[in-house]
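Workshop exercise sheet. Pairs work together: one partner reads the sequence aloud, the other fills in the structure field after running the prediction. Swap roles for the next sheet.
Pair: D.N. / O.F.
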Amino acid sequence: MSHYRSGARSFPWRDTRDPYAILVSEFMLQQTQTDRVVPKYLAWLAAFPTVQDLASAELADVLALWVGLGYNRRARFLHETARAIVSAHGGRVPDDAEALDALPGIGPYTARAISTFAYGRRHAFIETNIRSVFIYFFFKDLEDVSDREVLGLVEETLPDEGCRDWYYALMDYGAALKRSVENPNRRSKHYARQSRFEGSPRQARGAIVRALTAHGKADVDLIVADSGIERERIVSALETLMRDGIVAEKGGVYRIGGKT
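Structure field:
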């Protein structure tokens, strides 16, 4: 904890106990670096300051603000979660991890992180920096370390009080550790290098969402012209976005819409 107290990283979601704001940060931080999240997080809370504001927003407006973070399904899930919180939980973000886990797009890690960071509950969970610390100190020279093994140690070392700061300290130490040694996560059984963005389906999906939020609606030719991406890739990405409920089509014209 001395390392944390002397050089803790500063993030706006660490300065709040507002469960909704912490919920937003946890969705945004999934698979996205903190420096990219900060401006989007601040803009999001300015546009949708409460869970009720988000729940009543149009999906197109939600995705327009999300552009640049990638993995647009997270934005749809966050939108659906806000609606579920309003309709099923009286507009209050649940404090119970199991109730959180039942909401759209929230898994075991996110549920326990929200419960801990917003309400101070004591839960064992893992994210990339936490995993790095435990593999580095407890699994020297071992390969294929499972999260189950790591999670057991997290549970053993978790303090009875002050879990929130304990996790922030672990995350900061893990981030610093990866700048000084080879990334310990590479020895995790669950490690997977992120695929290249250029030429990927993610790039095509992001380009489609940007085009549709900019134009309101568009056909394939307009999206191709806007993005500069091959027609075949755009058509394939459109099919994925429609399955995900992010894009709807009528008469060859596409718009943001779908399941929400």
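Discussion prompt: The mean pLDDT is 93. What would you look at next?
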